[in-house]
Design goal:
Layout lengths: L1 E3 L13 H10 L2 E6 L7 H10 L3 E5 L11 H8 L4 E10 L7 H25 L3 E6 L2 H10 L7 E4 L15 E5 L9 H6 L8 E3 L21 H12 L3 H16 L4
The protein binds zinc ion.
C-alpha cells in the first residue's frame, strides 16, 4: 500500500474527474493522500475533499509563489480541523525571482518571513512541516535550524537533491521522493537516494505536476506513485513490497495519521 504524501487534488485540473482519479489510485493500492496547502483560496476545496474520504488529509500553508495571499489567522482557523495533519507547503523558491537586484532581495526577504511564521505555526500546534525548497537549499537549511524546526520535523520536496539537505535528517526531516526520480536526467537524485536513511523515505507525486516517465507532459495523479515506488525499489535494490512497507511506516510515524 502506498500513500501519496503530496498531491494537489484541489487543483482545477482535477475539477472534472476527481472521483475517477481517486478510484484509480485506490484500485492500484494507493490508499491514502495528503493535500498540501499552496494558494489559500484553494483551501476550502481541500477541506471538502478531506471530509469526503477517510484516508485523505490536508495541510494548511502558503507556497512561496503565493506569498502575497499569506494570512496567518486564516490558516489558524483551519489548523484545528481533525483532518489537518501538517503545515505547508511552505519554504523558499529562488527559481522565479525578479531580475532587478533590490526587488530580488525584497522577494527573498518576504519569502523568508512567511516561512519563519509557518514554522512557528507548526510548532505552536505540534504539526509536522511540508517544506518546498527550490534553488534555495542553504537558506532553507539555515532557517529550519535557526527556528528549531526539529521540534516538529517534517518532509522535504527533493527538487534539487542537494546533498546539503541530507543534514536535515538529524533534525527530524523526511525526504519526499516523486516522479523526478524516473526522469532520464535525474542523475543527482538517483545518486543521493541510497544515501537517505530508508526510515526517512516518503513517496509523493506533487500531482498535477512532475509526472513520471513515461507520462511526462501529461497531468500527474496519485496512481503514478506506483511508478515512483517501482523506480525507487530498483535503485535501492530491494523488492517493491518491502519498500512500500518501509515507506508506509515512515508516513504513519511522521504524520500520525490513521492510514
Ligand atoms: Zn506541491
Amino acid at each position: 500500500m502506498i500513500i501519496d504524501t503530496h498531491c494537489h487534488l484541489n487543483d482545477k485540473r482535477f475539477e472534472n474527474d476527481l472521483e475517477a482519479v481517486i478510484q484509480r489510485a485506490f484500485d492500484a493500492d494507493v490508499k491514502g493522500m495528503i493535500i498540501p496547502g499552496a494558494d489559500p483560496s484553494e483551501l476550502p476545496r481541500a477541506v471538502e475533499i478531506a471530509e469526503k474520504y477517510d484516508n485523505i488529509y490536508f495541510a494548511v500553508g502558503v507556497h512561496p509563489y503565493d506569498k502575497e495571499a499569506f494570512d496567518l489567522s486564516y490558516l489558524e482557523e483551519h489548523i484545528t480541523h481533525p483532518k489537518c495533519i501538517a503545515v505547508g507547503e511552505c519554504g523558499l523558491d529562488y527559481f522565479r525571482l525578479p531580475k532587478e537586484e533590490a526587488q530580488k532581495e525584497a522577494d527573498k526577504a518576504a519569502q523568508k518571513e512567511i516561512f519563519r511564521k509557518q514554522i512557528d505555526l507548526a510548532k505552536r500546534y505540534k504539526k509536522p512541516l511540508i517544506v518546498h525548497i527550490r534553488e534555495a537549499s542553504k537558506d532553507s537549511l539555515d532557517i529550519l535550524i535557526e527556528e528549531n524546526a526539529r521540534e516538529v520535523g517534517g518532509v522535504l520536496h527533493c527538487y534539487n537533491a542537494s546533498p546539503i539537505l541530507l543534514e536535515l535528517d538529524a533534525h527530524g526531516f523526511y525526504y519526499g521522493i516523486g516522479g523526478v526520480v524516473t526522469f532520464k536526467n535525474a542523475k543527482k537524485l538517483v545518486e543521493i537516494l541510497p544515501q537517505i536513511p530508508q526510515n526517512k523515505l516518503l513517496i509523493e507525486t506533487d500531482a498535477p505536476y512532475l509526472t513520471p516517465h513515461p507520462h511526462r507532459g501529461e497531468r500527474n495523479e496519485p496512481f503514478y506513485t506506483t511508478l515512483v515506488a517501482q523506480k525507487m525499489a530498483e535503485i535501492l535494490q530491494i523488492d517493491r513490497k518491502t519498500l512500500e512497507n518501509i515507506v508506509l511506516e515512515n508516513t504513519r510515524r511522521l504524520f500520525k495519521a490513521f492510514f
